[in-house]
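Regression test case RT-17, inverse folding.

Input:
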């Protein structure tokens, strides 16, 4: 497994360490634009999941639970002890939520960057379709996108494996293994959400070429509102927590504006330090 650490030499006992989980098909290098703003503020580790970036494919990793266990084992092997502040972008958001449920006593904070809405129900998805006169729901679109990744001959074997795993997690029921997660402990949580995003050219072309029948602007508006409400509900019992809404930002907030994410990361880290001292 490929990984990169920073600040470990200066890390003191029981200080939080940032653990970065990337989006679908992305390695730890996707966070590179943020490093100049954060490297002197805390210790951290970024890594590449199985088959992604420079990490070898491991065919034994078949579920998101396997992903989480492998990260846990990596940290243990490297003797990087808790407490961990987990950072997750896109589908990395569900991954860090699963980690917090599986290993709650290791977590001192969570930081979500435009996370995937794993809490979206089938009923809500159908309601969005009806309300926006659209023929395709978000859950269906994710399945289509994953199948396109799998079928694309240019897709690397590692990325194809990851897409198949995510596809399996949402087959029959969307994020089916996330339905009974333990509540998040009372630790600082920050959720950054980009909304009212520009409709990208590829979205318009895909909608047209695949005859998806999505009214993109109202469709995304309703899905954004649901995602905001879901994450607000998720953190309602967490002190020193916040949702940061960023209108007209892109999905890759940390790449579009690394400093705004870095500043929020440092703020959340400091809240984690304070919370640990007050225990």
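Golden output:
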């Amino acid at each position: 497994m490929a990984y990169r650490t920073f600040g470990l030499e200066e890390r003191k006992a029981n200080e939080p360490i940032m653990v970065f989980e990337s989006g679908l098909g992305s390695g730890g290098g996707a966070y590179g634009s943020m490093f100049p703003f954060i490297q002197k503020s805390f210790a951290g580790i970024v890594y590449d999941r199985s088959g992604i970036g420079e990490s070898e494919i491991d065919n034994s990793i078949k579920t998101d639970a396997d992903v989480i266990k492998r990260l846990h084992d990596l940290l243990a092997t490297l003797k990087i002890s808790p407490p961990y502040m987990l950072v997750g972008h896109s589908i990395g958001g569900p991954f860090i939520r699963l980690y917090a449920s599986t290993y709650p006593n290791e977590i001192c904070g969570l930081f979500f960057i435009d996370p995937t809405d794993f809490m979206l129900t089938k009923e809500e998805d159908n309601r969005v379709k009806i309300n926006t006169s659209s023929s395709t729901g978000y859950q269906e679109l994710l399945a289509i996108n994953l199948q396109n990744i799998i079928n694309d001959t240019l897709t690397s074997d590692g990325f194809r494996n990851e897409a198949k795993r995510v596809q399996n997690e949402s087959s029959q029921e969307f994020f089916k293994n996330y339905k009974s997660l333990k509540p998040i402990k009372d630790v600082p949580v920050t959720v950054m959400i980009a909304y009212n995003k520009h409709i990208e050219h590829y979205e318009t072309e895909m909608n047209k070429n695949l005859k998806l029948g999505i009214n993109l602007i109202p469709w995304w508006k309703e899905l954004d509102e649901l995602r905001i409400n879901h994450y607000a509900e998720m953190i309602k019992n967490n002190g020193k927590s916040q949702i940061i809404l960023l209108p007209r930002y892109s999905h890759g907030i940390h790449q579009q504006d690394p400093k705004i994410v870095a500043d929020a990361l440092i703020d959340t880290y400091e809240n984690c330090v304070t919370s640990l001292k007050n225990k």
